[in-house]
Design a protein that fits this description.
Elements: H1 11-25, H2 36-56
Length: 68
């Protein structure tokens, strides 16, 4: 189980993905950095989303899976 302060995100991959999306969708903007604060916000949103899914998942079976 990950420690509470251990990141669930691959920070380098997230930064690379954001910068690729900027190049693709905002060609006139020469963005070269991603703030650590944004990475932290994305981490918090991911943790919150996971918490919501775990909370709403029925307690049946042995597999944690998507709910339609």
């Amino acid at each position: 189980m990950p420690e509470p302060n251990k990141s669930l995100l691959n920070t380098s991959a997230v930064r690379e993905f954001i910068l690729e999306q900027v190049k693709k969708n905002r060609p006139g903007w020469k963005c070269t950095r991603v703030s650590p604060r944004l990475i932290k916000i994305l981490e918090m949103k991911l943790r919150h989303s996971i918490d919501q899914v775990v909370h709403s998942h029925p307690s049946i079976g042995q597999t944690f899976k998507e709910i339609i």
